Amino acid sequence: MKTWAVAAVVAGIVAGVAGDAAHAQAKQSVSKAVAKTLAAAQEATKKNQWAQCLAKAREADAAAGKTPYDSFAISEMIGFCAIRTNDYTAAARALEAGLESGFLAQDQVPSRVRALSQVNYQIKNYGKAIEFGNRAIKGGFADGDIYTLVGQAYYIQGDYKQARSFIGDWVQGQEKRGQAPKEGALQLLLSSCIKLDDSNCTTEALEGLVARYPKDEYWQNLMRSMFRSGGSDAIMLNVFRLATEVNAMRRSEDYTEMAQLAIEQGVPGEAQAVLEKAFAAKVFTEARDVERNQRLLASAKQQATADKATLAKDDKAAAAMKTGEADVRIGLAYLSYGQLPQALAAIQRGIGKGGLKNPAEAQLLLGIAQLRSGNKAEAAKAFKSVSGDPTLTRLGNLWALRAQ
């Protein structure tokens, strides 16, 4: 979460506060009851005698017969000198009093409200930080830092529902205006969803992160939820395909399982490719795992060699069939061997014929072939056309994010 250096935050208001304190008498005369003591406080500021300044300002504050304007001038002086002594709690109280007095110049109100939100956040007065942050938002002079601060203040207080609602509305508003939400805001939204144990919200927040900031860690978190969702072997193989694409295969067992599923589903070329990738990355470290997967790779290579030998013949036979099931399977085989033009032609032919057992998977495979061919626009169109099975539909949406 973002933090603000207190000195940096208050530096922006020091000049304005100093101006008010130094020239208070010029704007409107302070009463005789405090004039001499305030003048002594002002003189102390010229010598950087901040403790003396505070002492004199507080002496003036204790004087009888003060006018409302006296109180304003004293608050501004205390605020200025308290900042210089790093007493931010006292400074926050005094500067708030100056703000609420009605004497602060209107052109200084926005910066004062923002600064009070930030200073109160730093001194852990989160309720006040939220109060002034929302005041800045309502007044139309809040920047992104203020929105983030308010969301974080809700979160730190343990009000995760309000944090989720506040940040969610802010992110949604930015997206409607065509603005890209900051990564920190999306992370805060994600953390709030996790704290609330809201799986749908968590998924949406992760998808927002991978759409804008496609880092491996976000994809890995997203894919973990896909693996937990389970499904048939065919569906799990499709989950592995996306996990491989987004670098979310974190365990050596993932590569082994994907290779076994690919062989069982009749795609030995895919099994060979994923195992060769694993060995190149030195994924297998235990001697037992190395030996086991070397045997699996040898089997995959043998089956792939036999598969490729009949691929052209099988392609012709599939093309002659009335329904497209065989065409899509041939297209997947071509895809596993990196023969993208042939893969696209076969899959498109199969979809065009119809009669498919799983049209959603066919659209998914078409999108993958388009993406690997470098045609992101057509890939996204194919991915967004995936419908029917909820897991495959979600995979289509995730692949569409990848294609962006």
Question: What's the layout of helices and strands?
Answer:
Layout: H1 6-22, H2 24-27, H3 32-46, H4 50-61, H5 68-84, H6 88-100, H7 109-122, H8 126-139, H9 144-156, H10 160-176, H11 183-195, H12 199-212, H13 216-229, H14 233-245, H15 252-264, H16 268-280, H17 287-309, H18 311-319, H19 325-336, H20 340-353, H21 359-372, H22 376-384, H23 390-403
Helix pairs in contact: 1-5, 1-7, 3-4, 3-5, 4-5, 5-6, 6-7, 7-8, 7-9, 8-9, 9-10, 9-11, 10-11, 11-12, 12-13, 13-14, 14-15, 14-23, 15-16, 15-17, 16-17, 18-19, 19-20, 20-21, 21-22, 21-23, 22-23
Which fold name fills CATH's third level, the topology of the domain at 6-157? Serine Threonine Protein Phosphatase 5, Tetratricopeptide repeat
- The total count of strands amounts to 0
Radius of gyration: 33 Å
Gross CATH architecture of the domain at 6-157:
Alpha Horseshoe
Give the number of helices: 23
The share of residues in helices is: over 70%
- Report the portion of residues in β strands: under 5%
Order of helices and strands: HHHHHHHHHHHHHHHHHHHHHHH
Multimeric status of the protein: single chain
The CATH first-level class of the domain at 6-157 comes to: Mainly Alpha
Structural class: mainly alpha
Give a short account of the largest sheet: none
Which regions have little confidence, pLDDT < 50, spanning 5+ residues? 19-26
Terminal CA distance: 27 Å
Mean pLDDT value: 91
